[in-house]
Each structure stands twice: as C-alpha cells, then as structure tokens.
Amino acid sequence: MKTRMIVACGLWALGQAALAQTLDVVDIAVGLVQPLEVTFAPGDPDRIFIVEQPGRIRVKRTGEPMETFLDITDIVTIDGFDRGLLGMAFDPDYQTNGKFYVHYTREQLGQDPVIIASYTVSGDPDRADPNSAVTVMEIEQLGVNHHGGWIEFGPNDGMLYFSLGTNGDFSNGQDTSNLLGTLVRIDPRGDDFPNDDLKNYAVPPDNPFVGVQGAAPEIWVYGLRHPWRASFDAATGDIYIGDVGEQSIEEIDFVSGTSPGGENFGWDCFEGSQETGRCLDLPVNHVAPIHEFTQEDNRCAVTGGRVYRGCAIPELDGTYFFLDFCTSTYWTFRYDGAQITDFMDRSVELMGNGRVTSFGVDYHGELYLCIFGGIIRKIIPADPPPDSDGDGIPDSCEGCAADLDGDEDADADDFFAYLDAFASGDFGVCDIDGDEDCDADDFFGYLDLFAQGC
Fold first, then answer.
1. Structural domain that includes position 370
2. How far is CA 324 from CA 256, 263, 377, in A?
C-alpha cells in the first residue's frame, strides 16, 4: 500500500507540473501558402519539411531561407479546402533509399481521386526528383470533399498508414467493401499487384480484413467521417484520430499500439457518442471516442493533434494537443488507454495564432502549429531553457555539447580539439554562443560545458 501511495503521489505531482507549465510560440517560417504539415526526415535533426496545399514541399534549416524540395502544383487540384497536397511521410529507411510518400488529390475526367505516390530525393539533399513519381495507390472519389489527408509510417511496424474520408456519402462509413471513411494500412515496399501500374504495394497479411469476403483488405479501422488529421504516439505506437463531425459533435478516437485493428468508430450510425438515427441496426462493435466536444459557440471542426514527446518541455511528456479549427480553442490531456487525466484549456497561452490546420513535429519531438494564413510556429515553454548555439534546440536536448568527437565522453581529446578550433577560428566548432565570432565568451562557455561532463 505504501508503494502504491508513493507512485500515486508521483503521478499526481507530474500531472500538477504539466498543468502548471505555461507555453508560448515562436515564428519558424513565414510567407508560406496554406501550410498543412510540418515533418522531418529520419536521421536528420537539422531540417524540417513543410507541406503547402497548392502542391509544394518546402525545406527549412534554422536561420536559413526556405528551399523548394518538391513542386507538383501542375498535377494537384486545389479548389476547395479538402483538396490539394494534403500530407507527406518519409520512409523509415530514407537515409538509404531516399524515398518519401505524398497524399494528394488530382482531378481526372470529372472525378477527384486521391493519389498516394512515392518520390525519391535527387543528388541534392534539398531537392526531390520530380520525375521519380511512382503511383502507389489511386482511390476513386466522386466528390470534392472529405479526402482525409493524414499519412505516416507506424513506429512499431514500419507499415504505411493514411486516412480517407467518406467523400460526403453517408453510406461509406459502415461499408467495408471500399476504403472511404477508413484508415488504410499497406506495405509500400512490396507489390501484390504486379500487373497493375496503379497498385504498387502489398497488403500486410495481419490486416484485420484479409480473407474477409467482400471487404477491402487494406482497411485498418473504419466508421470514420472525415479523419483530417491523425497521428502516432512515437513512444507507444498508439494512434489518435481527429474525426470532423457533421452537425453537432467533434471527436477524438483512439487505437492502441497493440491493437490488431478492425475498430469501428460508428459513423454514420453514430456522431461521437450520439446516434444519428440513420441506422436501423446499430453496430454492436462500435468503439466510442475517448473525447468529444460540441459545435456550440461557433466551434466547427476538430484539428487532430499530436502527443508531445520532445525534451524541451519535459513536464508535458505524453500530453496530447488538439484544437478546434474555427475558434482556435486549444486543449491538452493525457490518456493511459483507459481514462483521460490532466485535461486543460490552453487557449489563453496559445491564442492569436489564426486558424491552425495541423500540428507538426520535428526530429526532436517538438511540436509546431501550421497556420493556414502562411506561418509555421513552434510551441515552446514560456521560460525557454538555455540554447547556447541559437539553433532553436535547448542545450539539454542536444546530448553532451562538450563531446566533440562523438564518443559520448567529455575528455582531453575534446578539450584539445576545442583549443585547436578556437586557435584556428573554426566557427562551426568554437562559436558556442552563436554570434559568429570566437571570443572569450565562447571559450569560457565551452569550459562550463566541459565541466558539466556527459
């Protein structure tokens, strides 16, 4: 009993620290056109990639101008909020194969198909090869809305997941014969359809609808209306889904990282926890949302968020961020698979950011706001920790700053390497405070780092 009390007190104290932590934002990039996503390439801590809805992907390094990584504006349809270049995901093996995947819409003979395609980086790491496109999957959609847009590789299994809305057709929610209103799970490295140029993927054999007569085997979960943004918890593999409601309720759905898939989130028989009245027989396998909010007070659409797993705000580790698009109302909570704790309205802290389309994430696990008006902002603690080199990453998050040779130890080799860099004016090593000069402040700054050790 005493041990349980100590653990409970510790968890309570962690929750109180999370609630007490105040937040701020800082501009990272401006002058964008309808940014929808911020992400990063595996093994690359120095850059973020920004998806613009008209069909461009921009690459940004701290303190440097943006570059255009890929431009496919000539093939992307953009009229209407739910259309355009909607998301991107880097292959987990990007450092060796150079592949990444995009989720976009393309008008074709009066239809509006969703395209999942792969591209490959060129010889220039800041440029993709626009001629390297391979169609992974093409999903027929007749309408112009509810295309989903989220795409991401699972941290536990390395499979590619993406979301599709119902395309405005109620009947698609409970219809597992097609992919609309679902999260899809495929293996883009395989090819189960060698004679079909528009299907370049394999179906994972453990998908829940493999072998089920009449069902699309690519489905992972279903019963969704418009899953505009979902995300993986990088630490657990859990999926959080922000599903945009129709008339009254916005919802957050949850899929455990250990789930075998197959969850039915109820649309169009349910909107959130409420029956819609459109189904004579309610699904017995309906999985209720873990959180919902109504569309009162001008709220209109949930922007599904992300679980914070960065290191700049340790008090918020494991905290899920999400918001309402129309009112810019922000909330956070923790979810342990059974109950929500530490629920908090953070609108006052994060107000004034305009309409946010998505939460982004970088290599270090820090979170970003994609503001539809053309700005990317990073969420930071109101009292930021030291950042001696000015790269936007706290010193505490960059490992051992005094370890110059990468052997995870601050020793004589590192000390003399710094002296050599200081004597030669090697700014890349000796400029500790980021003022583009090697002076006494840098020398004593390194001495402080060296004294801290690793």
1. 24-381
2. 24, 25, 17
